[in-house]
What does this fold into?
Amino acid sequence: MLRMADDTLAFLLELAVYATAVRFALTRWPAGPLRWASALALPVGYAVVWALFGAPGAVLPLHGVVRAVLDLLWFGSAAVLLRATRLPRTAVAFAVLYLLTTAGHLALS
It folds into this structure.
């Protein structure tokens, strides 16, 4: 039961990374084609990286320290983007949730 809750939280955090990338693009650029292009390109870029290296069925799955670095960069970048869009409390909450789910994965594995 705990494992399922931890996996669900991890999945929701992954979705939040994509939403954060879109929010960043839509709030940081002036109206126009650059705004919309970046709102599409950022989450697609995240999706490609995750599909290649981070997803459970990744093409080139990473393990050990390299996987930990990917996770830190992946979820850490979302916290940075939240802070950049002037949501510092949300950025801290996101980082804390990431640390909790990481601790949960380590404790349950």
In short: The chain is about 85% helix and 0% strand. The two ends are 13 Å apart (CA to CA). The chain has a mean pLDDT of 93. Residues 2-28 form the longest helix (27 residues).
